[in-house]
Specification:
Layout lengths: L9 E5 L3 H13 L3 E5 L2 H10 L4 E5 L7 H10 L6 E5 L4 H9 L2 E6 L4 H14 L3 H4 L10 H13 L6 E4 L6 H10 L8 E5 L8 H6 E2 L11 E2 L1 H4 L4 E5 L6 H13 L1 E3 L6 E3 L3 E6 L3 H7 L4 H7 L2 E4 L10 H15 L6 E2 L1 H9 L5 H15 L4 E2 L1 H12 L1 H4 L7 H20 L2 H7 L4 H11 L6
Parallel strand pairs: 1-2, 1-3, 3-4, 4-5, 6-13, 6-14, 7-10, 10-13, 15-16
Antiparallel strand pairs: 8-9, 11-12
């Protein structure tokens, strides 16, 4: 463990006792720390959101926003700062709750200098790496697979290598791509995204490379494409497996040559962009079938990251659910105390075929509809029954098979549109012809963006 005398790290002290604040400032400043202070948690939250802090020294019992609530806010905002909590009146349950929310040590008041310095030194040992402070905390979870994922992202991010991110729908591939960008040397540049499966085939080239005025009917003015918008930063091509073959060839040319032209233009632009790609499809199998270019696959798969499905890291479900609930209750102006223990057990037992996205949507429903102060196991079971579509099959006696099939088809179509954002992308995900899919939508009275 490093000694405090050699430190020049930053500490934020939060306490409503002005005399104690000044005393702690003197002690820690003499030890070489850069010390800031706040007399209330609201001011502290503002500092933490704006500036980097190595250690938070926090009083649990303060008027207004208390220490526990501040820790909850930091957790909901994915801001990971090692915290040492102080209290002279706090109860044991309060201290245990602070530890559950991420506090790494507890110091009893009146504060003894040596005990305080030992706690601060421990907190400094536990602070996130520079890569985590740069944004890797967006990858939530403490399971072994997620810890390995964060470590891999931290190693990959500083390089300029292209990265192919694989994983099922809803696992958080976009979150991983964003974390790579924010932990890279390009973090001050733009992070530009394109969902290749949500763009009509005839617009993909314009979306990627832009177009000149008059390049085609309806091109009334110059438009910069995603490559140009991402100059100096990162371009994230989501669902790269859905890119048409002819566009794969054009993308490959840009990746090989580092140059591009706008559609309908003659001027060559140098491309200074790091490309990240993601897919839920089996690209090697697509290469074998001839539906994805082998040379493009190897250009994109310089570095590989696989995002595990939620069912393979069930131990992360309680943490994810609590974080999502805090966000959703704030967004919907609700007040909930959280989940009952048996509710979290019930949630963790579910397979979540829609992965983290399904869990997040489910928790938002709890935030809006939960009647009691806490989300119960009964609330969870009712919601899971609905998400599994059991309402379709609970009562089948006397119902014709054709009607049951139509109910199931409607359920699948509505779920696909909700997941992928529009009917065109949903049709591609279900691997059916768009015209057939649209006829089904019309039959069932399903409307939405094309």
């Amino acid at each position: 463990m490093r000694t405090c005398e050699l430190m020049t790290d930053s500490i934020l002290i939060v306490d409503d006792d002005s005399d104690l604040l000044r005393a702690l400032e003197r002690v820690l400043t003499r030890r070489g720390f850069a010390v800031r202070s706040a007399s209330n948690a609201d001011d502290a939250l503002g500092i933490l959101l704006r500036d980097h802090v190595d250690v938070l020294l926090l009083d649990l019992c303060m008027p207004g926003l208390g220490g526990l609530e501040l820790l909850r806010r930091l957790r909901a905002d994915q801001l990971r700062v090692p915290a040492v909590v102080m209290s002279g009146t706090g109860t044991i349950p309060d201290v245990l709750e602070a530890v559950r929310l991420g506090a790494c040590d507890f110091v009893e008041k009146p504060v003894e200098t040596e005990r305080l310095l030992h706690a601060v030194a421990l907190a400094l040992e536990l602070r996130p790496s520079p890569h985590v402070r740069a944004g890797l905390d967006g990858i939530l979870g403490e399971s072994e697979s997620i810890v390995r994922l964060r470590e891999l992202v931290a190693r990959v991010a500083p390089s300029e290598g292209r990265v192919l991110i694989t994983g099922e729908n809803g696992t958080g591939k976009e979150v991983v791509a964003s974390a790579i960008h924010r932990a890279s040397s390009r973090r001050d540049g733009p992070f530009v995204q394109l969902n290749c499966g949500a763009v009509p085939r005839d617009l993909v080239e314009s979306e990627l490379f832009g177009h000149e005025r008059g390049a085609f009917t309806g091109a009334h003015q110059l438009r910069r494409g995603r490559f140009e918008l991402a100059m100096g930063g990162t371009l994230f091509l989501d669902e790269i497996g859905d890119m048409p073959l002819d566009m794969q060839a054009k993308l490959l040319r840009v990746l090989q040559e580092g140059r591009m032209e706008r559609l309908g233009g003659a001027r060559t632009l140098e491309v200074d962009v790091r490309v990240l790609a993601a897919t839920h499809r089996d690209l090697p199998a697509m290469v074998e079938r001839g539906t994805f270019r082998e040379d493009l696959y190897y250009r994109l798969d310089v570095l590989s990251i696989h995002v595990p499905p939620l069912r393979e890291r069930r131990e992360d479900v309680p943490l994810l659910a609590e974080v999502f609930l805090e966000r959703a209750t704030r967004a919907n102006r609700r007040t909930l105390e959280g989940f009952t223990p048996d509710a979290l057990v019930t949630l963790a037992a579910h397979d979540f075929p829609g992965n983290v996205r399904e869990l997040q949507n489910l928790v938002e429903r709890f935030a809006i509809l939960a009647a009691g102060p806490r989300v119960t196991s009964a609330d969870v079971r009712r919601a899971l029954d609905r998400s599994r579509g059991r309402t379709i099959t609970h009562e089948v006696q006397g119902v014709a098979l054709a009607e049951l099939v139509e109910r199931f088809e409607r359920h699948v179509i509505e779920a696909a549109i909700a997941e992928h954002g529009n009917r065109a992308a949903a049709a591609r995900a279900l691997e059916v012809e768009r015209s057939f899919f649209y006829k089904k939508c019309k039959r069932f009275g399903i409307v939405g963006d094309t």
